[in-house]
């Protein structure tokens, strides 16, 4: 049986992560590469990025951000991006990725984890709700902020 595993981002895995194909109906909900540039107080060195492999294939990508001093609470400990190949969706890859971030946030001493998503029928809101995130606000650009208690 194949197991999922995390791997640090490298030149080879970044290329694979950048070419993951999601389902067409999800395209409007994909986080743009320039996402971090929208918030000038974000320090790229505090990003935590991993690929998810199943056997030798990259099937997902996760990026989180950890900055306990960030002025916006929702950016102190947050999931920035989960991308799962359309062919691997429904097989626990997204849940595996989210759990990896939950574990990392807990290890770093955070008691909450946040995520932001664009609302919509094909968007990731239901996925995050199934993980236990609750709607806790809205960004200035209309995305939903979800919060998960880690206690």
UniProtKB/TrEMBL annotation:
Ranges for domain N-acetyltransferase: 4-151
Superkingdom, taxonomy of origin: Bacteria
Protein's UniProt keywords contain Transferase: yes
UniProt-listed InterPro entries: Acyl_CoA_acyltransferase, GNAT_dom
Keywords of this entry: Transferase
Segments for region (Disordered): 15-40
One matching Pfam family: Acetyltransf_1
Keyword Zinc-finger carried by entry: no
Recorded GO MF terms: acyltransferase activity, transferring groups other than amino-acyl groups
Descriptive protein name: GCN5 N-acetyltransferase
Upper lineage: Bacteria, Bacillati, Actinomycetota, Actinomycetes, Micrococcales
């Amino acid at each position: 049986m194949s197991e999922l595993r995390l791997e640090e981002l490298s030149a080879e895995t970044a290329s694979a992560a950048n070419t993951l194909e999601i389902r067409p109906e999800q395209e409007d909900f994909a986080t743009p590469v320039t996402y971090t540039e929208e918030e000038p107080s974000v320090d790229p060195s505090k990003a935590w990025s991993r690929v998810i492999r199943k056997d030798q294939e990259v099937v997902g990508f996760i990026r989180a951000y950890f900055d306990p001093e960030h002025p916006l609470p929702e950016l102190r400990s947050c999931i920035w991006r989960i991308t799962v190949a359309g062919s691997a969706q429904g097989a626990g890859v997204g849940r595996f990725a989210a759990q990896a971030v939950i574990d990392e946030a807990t290890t770093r001493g955070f008691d909450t984890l946040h995520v932001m998503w664009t609302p919509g029928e094909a968007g990731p809101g239901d996925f995050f709700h199934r993980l236990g995130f609750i709607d806790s606000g809205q960004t200035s650009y209309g995305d939903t902020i979800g919060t998960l208690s880690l206690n």
